[in-house]
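To whoever picks this up:

The parser on our side crashed when reading a file containing two proteins. I've narrowed it down to the boundary between the first structure block and the second sequence. Both blocks are reproduced below exactly, byte for byte. First block:
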Amino acid sequence: MLKNEKKRIQKIIQLLEKNDEDEETLIAHINEAEHIFFKCFKNENKIKNQIINTYFIPYVSLLCEKLSNDRSSSNSSNNNNNNNSMNENYIFKEKLIVIILSFLYSIVRINKNYAYLVVSFLVNLLEEKDYIAKIVEYLKKINIYLLNGLLFSKKKIHFRNGNSNESSSGNENGKNNNKNEYYTNDETHLDNLKQGFNDYVTLKAKVFNMLSNYQFSSYINDNPYKYDIIKNLMTILTKEIFFFFYILK
């Protein structure tokens, strides 16, 4: 059963790489992939961990790349109405950012050990400045789960390559030495704390920097998104304060 799911994930990733699927088919593939990943995250074992460690990062990375790609560009020569094409592309990307954020939100709620990866993807997603309001909205929902995972999880995922220190001891985690494969190993609590909070601080710093430098309208009433971002950031800070008071009791 798990071998079939592994093959199915491979197939879905290949289809995502081709970038020639229509929206309805693409969404169906994404839903199927999410269903498989959720089963793996909920009940980890050796084979399920292999699926997560090998395919999770490439899968989410491909989805994030689609936010940067213009789906309408390949069809613009056959479509006389470029405005409609651009509008469809925008609507698709709006759906996709919600799908990605909802997926990451669900992952960290299911399994806090992967909070480190979720933070790193959120940092990368902030490169898509048009979606800052939506990203901060989800960060408000997810920040306590992230902090809980960053503080108290014992698992991290590393990229294995020929120059990494971990590659020389990779056999401790499995016999497969494929340099493009992701793997897990146990880290000390202090290492998790340092790396996790470094990523989290980077995420918050990028949000505040974008809020300061992004070209919003002159008046806040003309740009309600700026108000939403500020309101959500204040909520995030309040939740963090209560969280730290709680764990320090």
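<<boundary where parser fails>>
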Amino acid sequence: MVPRLDGTHAPKTPRKSSDELGSSLRAAVSALLLRSPEEKSGDSVHVVQLSVDAVIPAVHKLDTPAFVGSPKAGGKAVPRWLRERLLDPGFSNLSPKSGQPGPGNEELQVYQDGIVDLIAGLHLTHVTANQEYADVFCKLMPDLATLQLEHCGDVMAEFPLGGVLKIYRIVKAIDQAQAQGLADRNRTSFPFQMLDAEHIVVIQFPRRKLAFVFADPVVAQRFLLTLEVLIGHVQEEHAKPKRVQPLF
């Protein structure tokens, strides 16, 4: 039996509206086209605002090209059933604008590419509660509302996105001695020795946190923004009153 983490009765912090989530994604995609100085952390851990730095090549071999490539390079073919679900009224703020060339707005393309990648599954590095690192396979279930984690081919857990309390990104600075120690203690493909900082996306549930570490800040930011919009939509759907079907 796959364990499920049901947070439907847990108190939730106020979340952004669909328009605000769309604006955040739109601003992030615009920022991806600009170059800015590399993030400097100063202390060991910093919670950072939602911003994206310069588009740079991925150094983590588990980072997928769909998250790293330029949003102007053209996205993947999105199946009709999925496109219709992504562009229902809950996503009207991300719908393609009339009069613009191409399949749609850049922010919609980034979001759709992110969802397609999650459905196919991503090889990520998971940070456990005792600060160990493990390579996992993360995928979005067909209901578009549940994340499933697998390790060595076995299902670890399923996480319903309707129970998410918040999601955020932090930057954790590491020096060469720390990087070498992490590499020695953890059997993972994460390139500790190539970095001076870890970019961690944390998904908080009522009873636990789910954390993924990335080598590339742009990859981490796109992963976070895709999940933020998706989680907002899932929770809006759960909050809608259910229609009672007549018996005759």
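After patching the parser it read the second block fine. DSSP finds six helices and eight strands in the chain. Strands lie at 45-47, 122-127, 133-140, 146-151, 154-160, 166-173, 197-204, 209-214.
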